[in-house]
Amino acid sequence: MKRAFCFIVSLLTLIEMTAQTQDIDIWQGTPVHLSRKVTLRPYLPERNLFQGAAVIVCPGGSYSWHAYKTEGTEVAEWLQGHGIAAFVLKYRVQGYIPFLTHSRAVFGGHQHPDMLEDMQRAIQWLRENADSLGIDPRRIGAMGFSAGGHLAMSAACYATTDFLRPLGIHHAVSLRPDFVAPIYPVVSMTHPCTHKRSRRALLGEWGKFKQTLRDSLSLERHIPADCPPVFLVSCADDPVVKIQNSDLLDAALTEQGIPHVYIRYNTGGHGFGVSETKGTAESRGWKAAFTAWLQQLLTP
Predict the structure, then answer these.
(1) Helix (H, G, I), strand (E, B) or coil at 295
(2) Please, which pLDDT band fits residue 21 given cuts at 50, 70 and 90?
(3) Which string of DSSP letters, residue by residue, matches 189-255?
(4) How far apart are CA 244 and CA 186, in angstroms?
(5) Which of 126, 112, 132 is closest to 57 using CA atoms?
(6) Contact 85, 55 (CB under 8 A)
(7) What is the dihedral of CA 234, 39, 227, 213, to 10 degrees?
(8) pTM of the model
(9) pLDDT surpasses 70 at 13
(10) DSSP letters along 237-273, please?
(11) pLDDT above 90 (res 296)
(12) What span, in angstroms and rounded, lies between the C-alpha atoms of 237 and 271?
């Protein structure tokens, strides 16, 4: 009898965990039809310790692919383990074949504003379904890594530009995240520090040459007066995305008087996510710093 009871409990737990991590097709039921699904994968804590806060996690990958495990599911599991609801966003990217062949120059493919449409739709979907998810619609933030950091910050910079309405999606919720955490982010599309692979993937094979498009997606030039609070992390020895990206963002946030924290580590490199082995002991400190910052931010 005891074994049967334990089996039933284990089975129910497994079913609950499976249901919790089931991908949500956020464009389902809308006029938008995609060849590949854009999904949110939920990681809901047993008890939300941050007043119903939720974080949309945007993995990096140069807008060409997703570092889905290192900067996606592992991050979400870490947030969940600390009592924060997390949702991993698998947004549209350039893809491996277009990256290798430059095929978008002829056949087209995913590029701006596809990624930002996915981000805004994710925010809309979470706000409209907040009650059933047990989250607070006024405490939905975005965390992104590398190119995902550019996407998360773009949600804050371009929140008043409704990319959903031209797609036939009408809503009554704000598309502005309540806080943003760009981690070693891509920022500029114009400065010499630009991460060129991300720029090409985001702007397209021809768009990357257009100065107006470069300017319009350089985040340091578009910090709004109502930008949400920002938690920014970068490493001076980053060999992939130069730290000047974060320096530019920090300066722009400071100029606009936006509440933010900028942690500029000397060591850590790039792509460490929440790993306990990647990066350095110094850079791994960002996790404790983030939870402390978020706790203080949400405290009345």
Answers:
(1) helix
(2) low
(3) SSSTT--HHHHHHHH-TTGGG-HHHHHHT-GGG---TTPPPEEEEEETT-SSS-THHHHHHHHHHHH
(4) 10
(5) 126
(6) yes
(7) 80
(8) 0.92
(9) no
(10) T-SSS-THHHHHHHHHHHHHT--EEEEEESS--S--T
(11) yes
(12) 12
The helix/strand/coil state of 131 is: helix
Which three-class secondary structure state does DSSP give residue 104?
helix
Backbone dihedral region for residue 97 (phi beyond 0: left; psi -120 to 50: alpha; all else: beta): alpha
| Structure confidence by residue, pLDDT tens digits, 265-287 | 999 999 999 999 999 999 999 99
Q: How far is Cα 148 from Cα 152, in angstroms, rounded to an integer?
A: 6
Residues of the chain with pLDDT > 90: what percent?
Answer: 91
On the question of pLDDT at 5 being above 60, the answer is: no
Element housing 126 (H / E): helix 114-128
**Which of 12-16, 218-222, 242-246 has the weakest average pLDDT?**
12-16
The arithmetic mean of pLDDT across residues 24-42, rounded, is 94
State the DSSP H helix or E strand holding residue 120, giving kind and residue range, or none if neither: helix 114-128
The SS3 assignment for 39 reads strand
CA distance 201 to 239: 19
Q: What per-residue confidence (pLDDT) applies to 150?
A: 98
Query: What is the pLDDT at residue 12?
Result: 37
At residue 58, what are phi and psi to the nearest 5 degrees?
-110, 105
Look up residue 65 and give its amino acid.
W
In a 10 Å sphere around its CB, with 0-12 CB exposed, 13-18 middle and 19+ buried, how is residue 195 labelled?
Answer: buried
Asked whether 197 and 147 are in contact (CB, 8 A), the reply is no
- Which residues, including other chains, have CB under 8 Å from residue 89's CB and lie 6 or more apart? 38, 39, 40, 56, 57, 58, 59, 118, 119, 122
Residues 245, 188 contacting (CB under 8 angstroms): yes
Cα separation of 207 and 189, whole Å?
A: 11
Average pLDDT score over residue span 96-112: 96
